[in-house]
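User: Continuing from earlier, I have the next pair ready.

Assistant: Great, send them over.

User: Here they are, in order.

Assistant: Folding the first of the pair now:
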Amino acid sequence: MAPTRSVLTVHSTTALQLDTRRWMSFSATGSKDVTRATALVYASYGKPTEVLKVLRHTVEPPADDSVQVQFLAAPINPADINQVEGVYPLKPPMTTQLYASSPDSGSQPPVAVGGNEGVAKVTKIGSKVGHLFKIGDWVVMGSAGLGTWRSHGNFRADDLTKVRSVEKMNEGFDSLDLDVVQLAALTVNPCTAYRMLRDFKTLSPGDFVIQNGANSGVGEAVIQLAKPLGVKTINVIRNRPGHEQVAERLKQLGATHILTDDQLGKLETKELVKSWTQKNEIKLGFNCVGGKPTTEMARLLSKHGHLVTYGAMSRQPLILPASLQIFKDIHASGFWLTAWNEQHSREERQEMINHVLDIMKQGQFAEINCTRHHWSATTSDIVALERRLLEAVNASSSGLGKQVFVME
């Protein structure tokens, strides 16, 4: 259900009054090198449609070790919603940095910018990072919690990863056919799938992986990244109205086999899986659900198999029976891409992005099925912009599919 008009009107009117005063103060500074910008921010945790507001502000030139970017697109992910609600482990610091040019900055509440993922174009470069980026390069976030629901921003060069080179674009060698939304949604789901397929088991052509939540963003990425490796996938989806259409989409993406969650734990399912795998092994299991269905999925792993958990959508505990650990030597690990990024260098992150991009360039990655919401950084109607952005956030919170901000 969309947020009520009364909530949005009161909230937007307040934001508009604050932003107009702040915008006039910025304009009065007379600086010719500041960039006018908008951002979707929150000053406290809570229901996203109640705590998020559009903040109109200016961005100063970047520091020596930083670059300024103009965002092109930014997805709304479940983790983003959880972050605004205050229930996600990673909480971006709330600061008054966006008010830096305002004479009344001390009276304004600290805020954080929403969003963790997005693609942006470099527009200004600090004096010490010209060897890393050029004006016109396209970049994605190399770390989480930086705030991507904004039109413009300054970021440390070490926190960004290049996805398109302006030099190669000018030479005609990097004019990718990839959609801007594909690039915006590159760093979370595809990279999570990429790491899980490579970091826990050595996979060979003919090997199998089994996963639940197969129609999630990570699940679809697993299917598409496994295919070039010759790795086959067994994909578990929920048995609910419309699951036939979900199964058909997954098959189009390259899914080898599909099960519904209510088939798990049945003897005939165990025999069916044996007929699929023959003498090949199910070396990996990917879990984003938890609860009893995941326990039953783990029973289908081959001896020495590895169960990797990267989510818990059911909010039910994961139980791994002692028999699986003792007699089948099943191992279990958790994976969080944010932690991986923190533990690895900028160069290693760039290498991962390049590998995923190579697969996308080969046409082996389908375009993302999503709803696009246009964000105009130059609009004077902040009330309408805020209403439109919050409707997108509400649609994401309500489970109405992938929602993406596309900046103009």
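And the other member of the pair:
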Amino acid sequence: MPPQLLPSSAAAFSARAAPNIVLNTKVDPFLTGTLKRVARKRPLNSVAQHFRCLTEILSGPSAIWTLASLFLQRAPQDDLVKNDNPLVEAIFNYQMVSIEAYVVHVDMVSQNEVAFKLTPETIESLIEYHKDIHSVDAKNDTFNWSEKEAQLKKLHEDFVQAVNKFVYRTNSMVLEGLEEDGAGELLCGRSEEVKNAIMGMFLPLLPPPPRPVDIVRPTPVLPSSTGAEHWWQPNLPLAYSNTQDSWKYAPSEPVYSSADSGAGMWANMDLSDFQLPTEMMADMSPTSSYSDPFSATPSPQQFYSLPVASAPISSMPLPSTLMQQQCSPSVGYDGFGGFNWDDYSNFAPMHQMQYAM
């Protein structure tokens, strides 16, 4: 896409000059019909005649186009007239401001467009409205901060620059609204585009964003801190603490006590409370010639005594000898290993022991 170049007269704060017009080698029929309507006596037989006629019409002092009309306030919001009749309020509080411009560029070759620049009178009226009404309302609608006045001043300066740089571009078909004296109006609803573009330059006064609040968090107490040495210990009841202090921990290695050291501990223990009735003991213990007599006061050596060497047990016969004697009648009568069946009566029967237990 080729660059969209504009003449120097379209720059900001530039004086008005003759428009820059570029026509094609063949003039469009709509342009020829428009020029014949506004300049009836001018010959239009060539491209050059079209160029001279269009330049003279658009360069005249009366060639001012009305792009749009704005309905603006006459005073700030606090100074407006209050009335029950809306029509009275509209008459006294609002005014009609016409947005006027002149043609600075006509391109019928590459861009096929027409460029308009605002007149100095329109620029002045818009700047005055922004300073006396829009800025005052913006100031009253926002809270105060340290840089509010400086931001208001910058907001107005930015508007002055924007309104002086404003150039409205539209299709070349807009020349159909041209009049005899060079004035004209925008057709086909293009006035709404200009109105939205002009009102878009009235920017609101934005207060600064709220500063982030620094949340002060308490510094965590570390175990190495000197402030609280035992902060990690829970508060326990006094009785539980005293009991905990009296605990004795088992040693890491087992301690074996001898029979002598245990004798003193068991000698001081009174076993009279653990004595069972005689009848119960008689039922639980079967009478046997091999049972030891019961003693109410046992000796310490009876419970914690070192193993005492006893007489060697008679050796049991080898299986080979049993195999030799299994066919002999002495196996049934003599027994095994010196066992005699005559001693059978000395042992209690098994069923009696089960009932005793």
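Worth noting for the second one:
Residues 197 and 205 are 18 Å apart (CA to CA). The first strand starts at residue 20 and ends at 22.
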